[in-house]
Amino acid sequence: MITLILLHPLKSITAQSWTFEDEPIIRIGRAMDNHVVLYSAVVSRRHVEVRQVDEGWQVISLGANGTYVDGELIFQAPVIDGVILRLARSGPQVQIRLGENDSNEVIAGTTLLERFPQTVGSS
Q1: pLDDT digits over 101-119, tens only?
Q2: Which CATH number covers residue 10?
Q3: φ and ψ at residue 69, rounded to 5 degrees
């Protein structure tokens, strides 16, 4: 099970959430055929894919404006429970929760993405 939580832009609370149990690929973007549709001018039609892989989950950035973790541009990276993605430098933030969660409570921490040097771009 994986839950994506759209964070409120001004507070550390949930604005909306989506839970998936049997989806191997979850698409996020502005286009209506994405699993998660976000209405923001800085979000690309196809901005991010979250893919299930042998080791867990992986984020793949597809958007022209980039995807960021801790202010760093990422292209492809493994996911750790609680990671917060920012779609574009000033765009919406989405937290990823893995496994069974009792609530969609936002958990603290932004350094939860294990990055490999070859998957992180320079700002």
Answers
A1: 655 555 554 333 343 434 4
A2: 2.60.200.20
A3: -135, 125
